Amino acid sequence: MSVVIGSADGDPVDWASLDVENRRVLVLVDVDATGNDPAGDLRFAASLPTLETLRARGARIIVAGHAGRAPCGEKAHIAPSIVGIAERVAAHLDVEVRVPDEIVGDAFARLINDQRPTQLVMLENLDRVPDGSPELDGMVGRLVSTLDAFVHDALTAVFPARWGSAALSKGTQRCVAGMRMQRELDALDGVCACAGRGLTLLLGGDSMERASRALLHLVERMGRGDHILVGPQLHPAFVPSSPGGTSNPSRPLAARLRDKALARDVALVYPADVDVLDADGIVTTRAGPYAPDADERVTGLGARARAQFSALIQGGAGALWTGALVDPRGARASESDREIARAVADCRGGTVAILNPMLAAEIADLRVGIGNILPDDDALWHALAGEAMPGWMRVTTPTPP
User: Fold this and answer.
1) Nearest partner of 44 among 112, 91, 6, 8, judged by Cα
2) What does DSSP assign to residue 69?
């Protein structure tokens, strides 16, 4: 997917030609300020290349965006502060980072106007400011009047448009997708391009409802030579005769996916066996294709199923992995996930996308070289579903085969 964010004058601006030396550039990012969160570490690392490149080009960088929401039931101003992230950015980029106390008012304006190229300004967590509030509107208005360029590097702010991103894109003269956003869309594009020529869709987790439209859209592109590997938690939804299948909330969607796959000659593959695990991920029982009381116990792929799934993944042109293969109640990545991770890293085609950052964080210590780890966010599911980007973005996608 090639992405150009609509600039104020209507002329496309690509990343390579963006002139930012000694110019004020706002970068919209999605980071995490909630402490020792491995998935947050991945989000933080994914945002660094854009900032590093802009700094090397001599830009005056202003950073804004999502850094963690308030706990459920709390008011927005309780959301985590960006200060911890600012300290990490300062250490990684070896640059002075200044965080204003507010995002409107004279002090904010002076900080922006007086910024030197050797300084980076990081605005406080925008999750503290409700969309449509006077404070956010005031910040957007102030920035639009002073910015030379806007780099949108947070796909999570696209569906819906959050944190003033739509107004910033419309009002800023030069706008471009950041390196992280482009990489995420390219990863999805690469997976979609594998459909019909050896794509392996690995369905993990215990629910598919959020991703329903995306999965249906993807299966419609698939064909002979493609495989759908169904994890043990979703197995009963696809095979209603299995115990618990009739009550599984994913059963209607599973039936639609199954029918579409059969109509397009896509192979559906179920686990040959499962392991029943304790809370620490230790195997306690080895069972057949489906453990009758799986609703009460943690299950993972058995030895035969792991070999079965691994062979199909390694021999394919690409893989899309939607979630962990162990029940989410497990505290650590299961042996199922670790072994499948190694197979994904060895995928012959080399095109890999993992839509669950927590899963990626759990297996990161394997150092198996898995690339294209994407946030499990509604925006990516919208993009994978082939839905049109908002009017302020122009995105071209390949047509289905």
Assistant:
1) 91
2) P
